[in-house]
Amino acid sequence: MVDEHLPVFDFGGVNRGWSKAFMAAIRKATLAQVQLNRQEEIEQALERIDEAANEQEKLLAEVLVSVPREWLARSAPADLNWKDPESLNWVRPDYYGRLLNMVQSGEAFKNDAKN
Fold first, then answer.
1. Above 90 in pLDDT, residue 83?
2. How far apart are CA 50 and CA 74, in angstroms?
3. How far is CA 74 from the centre of its chain?
4. Using CA atoms, how far apart are residues 115 and 86, in angstroms rounded to an integer?
5. 24 burial via Cβ count (<10 Å: 0-12, 13-18, 19+)
6. Angle at CA 49, nearest 5°, toward 48 and 54?
7. What pLDDT, on the 0 to 100 scale, is given for residue 52?
8. 2: pLDDT strictly greater than 80
9. Burial (0-12, 13-18, 19+ Cβ within 10 Å), 46
10. Which of 10, 13, 102 has its CA nearest to residue 56?
11. Is the pTM of this model over 0.85?
12. How confident is the model at residue 15 (pLDDT cuts 50, 70, 90)?
């Protein structure tokens, strides 16, 4: 049963390759943050973080079906297309981290549209 107060996902078309790509994007961001913390090649580390974030957005858009209205900025349009990674820009920052965490932790699989 889908909880309407949480984002809804559709993992029906997801395969192991998608999971590997999502985890690779997380690894890339983590390594870049470690590099950044060491003050080594700061510009390169920041570029890697941006690159990993863009990869995560594309992968998230592949499985995201809907996001509760209260998770969005007040000015967000009503007709967002969640298959377009740009729509994720309307998610409030405090909820965007939760959205990513839901996928990383497996919680998102509990609110799959197919269940």
1. yes
2. 25
3. 20
4. 27
5. middle
6. 95
7. 85
8. no
9. middle
10. 102
11. no
12. low
